[in-house]
Design goal:
The complex is a heterodimer of chains A (775) and B (94).
Chain A lengths: L4 E2 L6 E2 H14 L3 H10 L26 H10 L4 E2 L1 H6 L2 H5 L3 H6 L2 E2 L3 E4 L4 E4 L2 H14 L6 E5 L5 H14 L13 H11 L8 H6 L2 E5 L3 H4 L1 H12 L3 E5 L9 E3 L4 H5 L4 E2 L3 E3 L6 H17 L7 H7 E2 L1 H10 L2 H8 L3 H12 L4 E5 L1 H4 L4 H14 L9 E4 L6 H6 L8 H11 L11 H9 L5 E5 L3 H4 L3 H10 L2 E6 L4 H4 L4 E6 L7 E3 L2 E8 L4 E6 L12 H13 L7 H4 L3 H11 L6 H4 L6 E2 L16 E2 L10 H8 L6 E6 L4 E2 L2 E2 L9 E2 L4 E4 L1 H6 L7 E6 L8 E9 L6 E5 L24 E7 L17
Parallel strand pairs in A: 2-10, 3-4, 7-16, 8-9, 8-14, 9-12, 13-23, 14-15, 16-17, 17-18, 24-31, 28-30
Antiparallel strand pairs in A: 1-27, 5-6, 5-18, 10-11, 19-20, 20-21, 21-22, 24-32, 25-26, 28-31, 29-30, 29-32
Chain B lengths: L1 H5 L4 H12 L6 E2 H8 L3 H11 L3 E2 L2 E2 L4 E6 L2 E6 L1 H10 L4
Antiparallel strand pairs in B: 1-5, 2-3, 4-5
The chains are: A alpha/beta (775), B alpha+beta (94).
Chain lengths: 775, 94
């Protein structure tokens, strides 16, 4: 573990630092051999898909096409460490609750199914069939299937996800909370009515042709490192890269490609962003509107900049948008974006000078109250000049987990379209439930109401990923049964229901042998490429089952003769599952044949072809007013005698979603610790404190509930005044359950009104059993 | 070679055994070179080496014919004693 220190990071993203970090990740897991073996084939033809992020691969042929954080994800799965029955015999759950997320993850791979024994407060072994029977008994005892909730992590393969949604719908509910609810749900909610698809329209080829790439609220250096390769190439050929981010992020500034021998030998690097705008947290909406206002003013001044042909042929709603833009106030836009009119015009000029423009965005856009409107403004901006459905241009919501997009394609959705349910019912001979199910936040509310009684999670770490931590944990503990399919120990196994199961599964790096031989699974990346992934390493334990096998055996145990689906036959050969997927989804015609091509195939994207599957059969311009009634605005109005900051939660560099690989955040200069809060130096002074002081954070909310996260170290950072950043899950307790994105329901983890106070050592409000203990 | 085919092994496994048997005893062969010699990607090679090692996969113990090792930055595959004995019995070395 690193020494605790705060040290300015001078080097570019990637480079030697990345390679050293890779070596450390492997050595820390005692797997120099296995980890390197695994790396050699990551994302290669006939290899496996990195279980990390959803950024696509250019050609699936490069020998060392991997990134630093992908290595960490792969190494974490291929670790030599094992969590055995002896480990559980030595630790009560109460004792494990005192440990950090890093510690839990670091114990290694789970090896056999375990069930919670309340008498000893320990997990004890259980046979697979007994585990399935226990879940089946609980599910079949519920008076209403809607009292069960079935969570999905974005790691689940298409095959596992398809079987899972089929099982759950045959069981009788659409209760599918999933990780999309917490990340890109607003992207789909915004784009489906606007352009007819909920996915990005661009491919990697478009990145080669774009003249300008706008990156909103995204930190690819940590979250999608392979994207830096595309940005570096774009930068080298002279494309403009415009970054909008409250924090100075090293990966958006400079990048040294570890695969470029010359760059590595000369200690060189490539500048990434040609323009960097540090706007206020949540200021994107106003900034984009300012850019569009400049575009319209140019048009009105007699400089034809709009793509009138595209607008006339393909869109509706332009007049209302133009009127709204003309009437908008520059001072208001400046106030809300935190940047000047000149800066907005400058960004707009980059846009106007580019023939082809791509707009990318991440959680910095989606996890706000008005994220849906903001995304529609981004799409508006592109459509003004026809930057949609042509080479080098389009929208690019950058997804997180490796198959989060594929899971939604497979039907993991609490609000399934009727046509999909019709087809599913026809293919499998049953009547699917039609009532919409619950998403993540609604699931937590269902648990808290006492009506949510069984919680099943196919992967993930629900207890750590969700908002309003203590409320979520209260809900989970009220469940009759919690079940987690997982590869490693995490917080969600410690915060459990009255009965609880841990079901260990194969990782994606591992060879999955079924009756018909070794099996591969398919995944869909952020750009709708579907390809096969076949494991290469021996399984961590002989007792592990694959996720499709777990789902199928559970379905058989639960549904019995009620189901006509040949569950156990389907998992003998996953090609049979893919045949069924093809039968349900037209886009997967010839599925088994098409995945034989290295790199797989791309799903059709109608908006990319300028075919608009919307109500009007056109792409829709939306006019939105600048949001002035957000929780942050209201908190400022209520707390006149206090300094209210806007906090956004973020990952460290040694973290993937809720998985903590280490306690460093190299690019931000943080080492050996996680309880830090990034703040402008002038704000520290304003508080009468100094860099390095310890503070407690409290949410400025109006429901009378005290939400706090204690003992964070102030770190002076290049961030706008009034804004703070800190890591999750440590700061998730500050996000109120009721604070969600309009329409999409996504927790607003990127705009939490908070107040700071000096840390009080004797403060007893930090509950011992709820700590995200860390360094 | 023909004797090896009589064992029911697939061509890739036979190719690996042939290559490793012709390498210096105990020194093994670097993985990139082995992949190049056999004309297969490293992922394909590694998957096959996993199946030819001693791990239990799909409830079946591996034959334990090969071992992968790291020597500094060089990654090598080599026959084990069991692998050499198997090749001696079934492989017609010129």
């Amino acid at each position: 573990m690193s020494e605790q220190k705060i040290e300015f990071y001078k080097s570019p993203a990637g480079g030697w630092g990345a390679l050293k970090s890779v070596s450390r990740a492997l050595l820390a897991q005692d797997i120099p051999l296995k980890g390197a073996k695994t790396l050699l084939s990551a994302n290669q033809p006939d290899g496996f898909d990195c279980p990390g992020c959803a950024w696509p691969d250019r050609n699936h042929a490069s020998t060392f096409e991997f990134c630093e954080n992908g290595v960490k994800a792969v190494a974490a799965e291929a670790t030599a460490r094992r969590v055995t029955r002896e480990f559980f015999a030595q630790h009560t759950v109460t004792a494990l609750a005192e440990q950090s997320d890093f510690y839990l993850e670091d114990q290694g791979r789970l090896t056999e199914p375990m069930v919670y024994d309340a008498g000893t407060d320990k997990y004890v072994p259980i046979a697979w069939d007994d585990a399935f029977a226990l879940v089946a008994r609980h599910l079949n005892a519920l008076p209403d299937p809607n009292q069960a909730m079935f969570y999905t992590s974005g790691r689940a393969s298409n095959e596992a996800a398809f079987l899972y949604q089929l099982f759950v719908r045959e069981y009788g509910t659409n209760n599918f909370p999933d990780c999309s609810n917490m990340c890109h749900e607003p992207s789909g909610s915004a784009m489906r009515p606007q352009i007819g698809v909920g996915k990005g329209t661009v491919t990697l080829d478009d990145f080669e042709r774009a003249d300008a790439i706008f990156i909103f609220g995204q930190n690819p250096g940590t979250n999608h490192p392979r994207m830096l390769g595309e940005l570096r190439a774009a930068s080298k050929r002279g494309a403009k890269i415009v970054s909008l981010n409250p924090l100075r992020e090293r990966g958006l500034e400079r990048f040294a490609d570890p695969q470029d021998k010359l760059e590595m030998a000369t200690m060189g690097s490539t500048p990434i962003s040609t323009h960097y705008f540090q706007l206020r947290v949540g200021g994107d909406f106003a900034f984009i509107k300012g850019m569009m206002k400049h575009v319209v003013e140019q048009e009105d001044a007699g400089h034809p900049v709009l793509d009138h042909a595209f607008i006339a042929e393909h869109t509706v709603g332009i007049d209302a948008l133009l009127d709204d833009l003309r009437a908008e106030s520059w001072p208001l836009l400046e106030q809300e974006s935190g940047l000047s009119e000149a800066q907005m015009r400058s960004a707009a000029d980059v846009y106007l000078n580019a023939k082809s423009v791509i707009a990318c965005w991440g959680m910095g856009i989606t996890q706000h109250a008005h994220s849906v409107a903001t995304i529609q403004m981004i799409t508006n901006l592109l459509m003004l000049r026809g930057n949609l459905g042509r080479p080098g241009a389009g929208v690019c919501p950058v997804r997180g987990h490796s198959n989060v997009q594929g899971d939604r394609t497979m039907g993991i959705w609490e609000k399934p379209p009727a046509a999909f349910l019709d087809r599913l019912g026809k293919v499998f001979g049953f009547e699917p439930p039609r009532e919409p199910g619950v998403d993540v936040v609604e699931s937590i509310k269902l648990m808290l109401s006492g009506k949510g009684r069984v919680f099943f999670a196919l992967g993930g770490n629900f207890a750590a990923a969700t908002p309003d931590t203590y409320e979520t944990w209260k809900g989970l503990r009220q469940c009759d049964l919690t079940v987690h399919v997982t590869t490693k120990l995490n917080r969600s196994h410690i915060v459990h229901g009255r009965e609880a199961l841990i079901l260990p599964c194969l990782g994606r790096t591992e060879i999955d042998v079924q009756a018909a031989g070794a099996q591969g699974v398919t995944v869909e990346d952020s750009m709708s490429m579907v390809h096969i992934s076949v494991g290469i390493n021996p399984p961590a334990s002989e007792q592990l089952l694959s996720e499709p096998a777990i789902v199928a055996r559970l379905a058989a145990a639960t549904l019995g003769a009620r189901s006509k689906t040949p569950w156990l036959r389907l998992i003998e050969d996953y090609a049979r599952i893919r045949d069924k997927i093809e039968a349900v989804f037209d886009d997967f015609k010839g599925f088994n044949e098409r995945i034989k091509v290295p790199g797989g195939f791309r799903l059709r994207n109608t908006a990319g072809e300028r075919e608009w599957v919307t109500a009007s059969k056109k792409a829709q311009f939306y006019a939105h007013a600048v949001p002035l009634d957000t929780p942050v605005h209201r908190a400022h109005e209520r707390q006149l005698d206090s300094v209210v900051f806007t906090l956004f939660t973020t990952r460290s560099h040694d973290q993937y979603n809720t998985t903590i690989y280490g306690n460093d955040d190299r690019y931000r200069g943080v080492f050996g610790q996680r309880r830090v809060v990034f703040i402008h130096a002038a704000d520290i002074k304003r508080l009468g404190m100094k860099d390095g002081d310890w503070v407690d954070l409290r949410t400025a909310w109006s429901d009378g509930v005290e939400r706090r996260a204690d003992r964070f170290k102030l770190v002076a950072y290049d961030i706008p005044r009034g804004c703070l950043a800190a890591y999750y899950p440590e700061t998730n307790p500050l996000v109120p359950l009721s604070s969600t994105a309009v329409i999409a329901g996504t927790p607003t983890s990127k705009s939490i009104p908070v107040m700071l106070s000096p840390h009080v050592t004797a403060n007893s409000t930090q509950r011992a059993d709820t700590t995200f203990a860390s360094a | 070679m023909d004797l090896l085919h009589d064992t029911g092994l697939d061509d890739l496994s036979i190719g690996i055994l042939n290559e490793l048997a012709s390498a210096q005893p105990h020194a093994g062969m670097s993985l990139p070179r082995l992949g190049k010699q056999l004309g297969v990607g490293v992922s394909v090679l590694m998957r096959r080496l996993s199946l030819m090692g001693d791990a239990r996969i799909g409830g079946v113990p591996g034959p334990g014919w090969v071992r992968v090792a790291q020597l500094s930055d060089r990654w090598t595959a080599a026959l084990t004693d069991a692998g050499r004995a198997f090749c001696a019995e079934h492989l017609c070395l010129s």
